[in-house]
Design brief:
By secondary structure, this protein is α+β, with helices and mostly antiparallel strands. The chain has one domain: SH3 type barrels (Roll), CATH 2.30.30.790. 18% of the residues lie in helices and 40% in strands. The protein is built from 2 helices and 5 strands.
Length: 142
Amino acid sequence: MNLLQTLEAEQAATLRGDKPAPDFRPGDTLRVNVKVVDASFDEKTKQMKTRERIQAFEGVCISRQGAGLNESFTVRKISYGEGVERVFPIFSPLLDSVEIVRRGKVARAKLYYLRGRRGKAARIAERGERASEIAAKDAAKA
């Protein structure tokens, strides 16, 4: 590992903190919890007030690109009949957590073809895991 990769690994460890690294692939349905900062001006006290809340964005991961600190992923969901895509940097301080809702079975690394599909045509089959893989993951969590 060269010097640049070593520095990036150290920086990623400090940015990630105690949060585990997300382990997902394109095709997985994710629930991404994002920190949203609301800023408002209070007329009474004449001060800016900031309020932080967590907002969930749930959809299918259609791509994962980059490496190291520059790694990001794209999540697509259908909201009120309109497709919405959002790109999240993996090491963003605004990213609270990434939960895997379903694991999808796909044969592509980039699922951009989902943009042109609606309804049943946009379904992704669920990936079945072997019993040994599930037992290993449960042992790692404990």
